Amino acid sequence: MKTFIEQLINGLSLGSIYALIALGYTMVYGIMKLINFAHGDIYMVGAFTGFFASTYFHLGFIPSLLLAMLVSLLLGVTIERVAYRPLRDKSKISILITAIGVSLLLENGGIIILSPQVRTYPQIFQQHMYSFFNGIITISNQQIVIFVVSIIMMVGLQIIIYKTKIGKAMRAVSTDPDAARLMGVNVDRTVSFTFAIGSALAAVAGVLVGIYYNSIDPLMGIMPGLKAFIAAVLGGIGIIPGAMVGGLLMGVIEALVSGYGSSLYRDGVSFAILIIILLIKPTGLFGKNVREKV
């Protein structure tokens, strides 16, 4: 029982991070029907920004987090403006290949600029463990920080989407961009805002991963990016609550596989989940079948 609870807590910590990254995938897909393969690399840039902010500028957790969000936000908006917007009216395959190209550019650019070596993340928090119910439940302060920050970000995103004017514009553009444009919605600005929010959330995930695992490298965005994409598909890509639930499920499943089986199997299980969900319910857990008119 104790092992199960420990793995459950580990899985929810990891799943919270997957959920933050998956939100960026799902928002961009919901607006542009684009799988932004560069999203995992924006997460890497956020992690390194937090690393430099805390290591060389000796900033605390909150300032480092805000700086990482700002840098990733600007990077996401720039990528959308320079690489994706000129191709928005072209075929989907063109913009998809461009996304892969941007991803490779960021990864190899990171290796050239930062070197491929693994960096040790500074210990922003002294680790403390808290035990409850005679040691049955044990949780670290780092895991508590991950939970709290992730919940704040997810609640904030829900408020932006359902309580603000720009959120209403995002929902309108995701439903029908042409109709939204006719109703006076600035589609370009809405798409840029979507990239900005998604990139900022990825940066938060990057900083939290650095704090939790204590190591980062220029290729750190590949596997978490793929798994966050699987989480978005699992929940129903384009559906924000689906990305949150899918991310948490992915984290818990991985932790249980590692705890009761072997960590060697967890990546294989993740991709098996993707295949199974595509075979059984391609729209994801929260998705609905939509009949397209010809």
UniProtKB/TrEMBL annotation:
<dbReference type="GO" id="GO:0015192">
    <property type="term" value="F:L-phenylalanine transmembrane transporter activity"/>
</dbReference>
<keyword id="KW-0472">Membrane</keyword>
<feature type="transmembrane region" description="Helical">
    <location>
        <begin position="135"/>
        <end position="161"/>
    </location>
</feature>
<comment type="similarity">
    <text>Belongs to the binding-protein-dependent transport system permease family. LivHM subfamily.</text>
</comment>
<dbReference type="GO" id="GO:0015188">
    <property type="term" value="F:L-isoleucine transmembrane transporter activity"/>
</dbReference>
<keyword id="KW-1133">Transmembrane helix</keyword>
<keyword id="KW-0813">Transport</keyword>
<dbReference type="GO" id="GO:0015190">
    <property type="term" value="F:L-leucine transmembrane transporter activity"/>
</dbReference>
<dbReference type="GO" id="GO:0005304">
    <property type="term" value="F:L-valine transmembrane transporter activity"/>
</dbReference>
<dbReference type="InterPro" id="IPR037294">
    <property type="entry name" value="ABC_BtuC-like"/>
</dbReference>
<feature type="transmembrane region" description="Helical">
    <location>
        <begin position="191"/>
        <end position="213"/>
    </location>
</feature>
<feature type="transmembrane region" description="Helical">
    <location>
        <begin position="12"/>
        <end position="30"/>
    </location>
</feature>
<feature type="transmembrane region" description="Helical">
    <location>
        <begin position="65"/>
        <end position="83"/>
    </location>
</feature>
<feature type="transmembrane region" description="Helical">
    <location>
        <begin position="95"/>
        <end position="115"/>
    </location>
</feature>
<keyword id="KW-0997">Cell inner membrane</keyword>
<feature type="transmembrane region" description="Helical">
    <location>
        <begin position="269"/>
        <end position="287"/>
    </location>
</feature>
<protein>
    <submittedName>
        <fullName>ABC transporter</fullName>
    </submittedName>
</protein>
<dbReference type="GO" id="GO:0005886">
    <property type="term" value="C:plasma membrane"/>
</dbReference>
<dbReference type="GO" id="GO:1903806">
    <property type="term" value="P:L-isoleucine import across plasma membrane"/>
</dbReference>
<keyword id="KW-0812">Transmembrane</keyword>
<dbReference type="GO" id="GO:0042941">
    <property type="term" value="P:D-alanine transmembrane transport"/>
</dbReference>
<dbReference type="InterPro" id="IPR001851">
    <property type="entry name" value="ABC_transp_permease"/>
</dbReference>
<feature type="transmembrane region" description="Helical">
    <location>
        <begin position="228"/>
        <end position="257"/>
    </location>
</feature>
<dbReference type="InterPro" id="IPR052157">
    <property type="entry name" value="BCAA_transport_permease"/>
</dbReference>
<dbReference type="Pfam" id="PF02653">
    <property type="entry name" value="BPD_transp_2"/>
</dbReference>
<keyword id="KW-0029">Amino-acid transport</keyword>
<keyword id="KW-1003">Cell membrane</keyword>
<dbReference type="GO" id="GO:0015808">
    <property type="term" value="P:L-alanine transport"/>
</dbReference>
